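ok, trying the design again with the full structure, not the truncated one.
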């Protein structure tokens, strides 16, 4: 591929910001890709600002950065989500920290990666702020009902909190979009949300996928279904378990989160095996051998679905969100339309009737390379230089 990205001779001092560093998920992999590319390009990363840092290893590049946390970091990590009303003050505090640090070591650019509140960080006067937005805060805008509609005491507490603080937090979130000079969206789906909620345009740059690591092999596919991701209410893992139970197929659940999914039929729970966190090598082996990866939720983009396709694995996904960017129906997967275990089960059946070619999955995944990501990021940075 020819390199048509703009080349800059000036090396910049760049500050990074990220909502929280508590686990290695898709957002952290994008942060790592940005940090690694900036360092490789000769830019200097002065500091990484974040509301929370649990101390868990993320990636070598991210772990090596000089970090600055808010006072919320003094609270125990499990309380992070319950401190939502305090996020505006935490971001304001970090903005003052950025301003203070800028006086002693001037920065040329601030880049935030956000699916919560850190996009509200205020850059010093004259310093552009690029926000790579994974999603406007889901619990405020697109998925508040799914965060509060689950059974149990935690859900009731979430509902009470959002009922009391939701309007003021949405007002703050929308108002502080003005702190961003240029939004980057991780999918066309999120670009439309940014336009609708913040009334701002966004450049679409899909997350980069490690297609040199996630590769096919000669393993024969079995009848096991697979889910890989966070165990959170909006992920709708319960639908995947219900569909597997209906079809009498086993499903492997890989990931951790705030809640264990509960299928509507307790008998269907027997289909699921919960593995918790697994290293990439084991996840890759599952991608290479499973019947299909199930994506029951509306994903902002869905890096896992592309990683799976890079291994030749078919995808069963909701016909919505980032899956419309990353999955090609009948060629690399099957869609279902509503949050229905019956529809999901039907899509799995169609996959059985009309198998997917693993080579087509691999070819599709190669569209989301690091090289494309880096070229597009360089173009945005170049466009904001004075």
């Amino acid at each position: 591929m020819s390199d048509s990205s703009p080349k800059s001779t000036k090396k910049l001092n760049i500050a990074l910001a990220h909502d929280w560093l508590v686990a290695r998920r898709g957002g952290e992999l994008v942060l790592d890709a940005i940090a690694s590319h900036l360092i490789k390009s000769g830019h200097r990363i002065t500091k990484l600002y974040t509301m929370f840092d649990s101390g868990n290893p993320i990636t070598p590049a991210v772990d090596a950065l000089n970090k600055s946390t808010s006072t919320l970091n003094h609270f125990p990590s499990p309380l992070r989500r319950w401190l939502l009303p305090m996020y505006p003050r935490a971001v304001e505090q970090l903005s003052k920290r950025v301003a203070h640090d800028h006086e002693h070591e001037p920065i040329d650019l601030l880049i935030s990666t956000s699916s919560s509140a850190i996009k509200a960080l205020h850059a010093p006067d004259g310093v552009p702020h690029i926000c790579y937005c994974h999603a406007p805060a889901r619990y405020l805008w697109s998925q508040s009902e799914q965060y509060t509609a689950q059974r149990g005491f935690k859900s009731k507490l979430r509902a009470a909190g959002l009922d009391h603080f939701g309007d003021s937090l949405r007002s703050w979130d929308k108002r502080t979009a003005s702190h961003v000079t240029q939004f980057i969206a991780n999918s066309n789906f999120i670009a439309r949300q940014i336009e609708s909620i913040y009334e701002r345009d966004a450049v679409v740059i899909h997350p980069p996928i490690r297609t040199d690591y996630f590769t096919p092999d000669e393993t024969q596919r079995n009848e096991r279904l697979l889910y890989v991701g966070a165990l959170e209410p909006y992920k709708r893992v319960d639908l995947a378990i219900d569909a597997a139970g209906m079809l009498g197929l086993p499903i492997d659940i890989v990931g951790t989160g705030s809640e264990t999914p509960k299928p509507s039929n307790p008998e269907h729970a027997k289909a699921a095996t919960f593995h918790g966190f697994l290293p990439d090598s084991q996840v890759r082996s599952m991608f290479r051998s499973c019947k299909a990866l199930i994506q029951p939720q509306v994903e902002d983009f869905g890096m896992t679905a592309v990683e799976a396709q890079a291994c030749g694995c078919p995808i069963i996904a909701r016909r919505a969100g980032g899956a419309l960017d990353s999955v090609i129906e009948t060629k690399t997967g099957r869609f279902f339309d509503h949050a229905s275990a019956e529809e999901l089960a039907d899509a799995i059946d169609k996959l059985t009737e009309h198998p997917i070619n693993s080579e087509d999955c691999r070819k599709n995944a190669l569209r989301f390379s690091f090289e494309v990501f880096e070229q597009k990021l360089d173009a945005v940075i170049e466009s904001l230089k004075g």
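Keeping the full-length input from now on. DSSP finds 13 helices and 13 strands in the chain.
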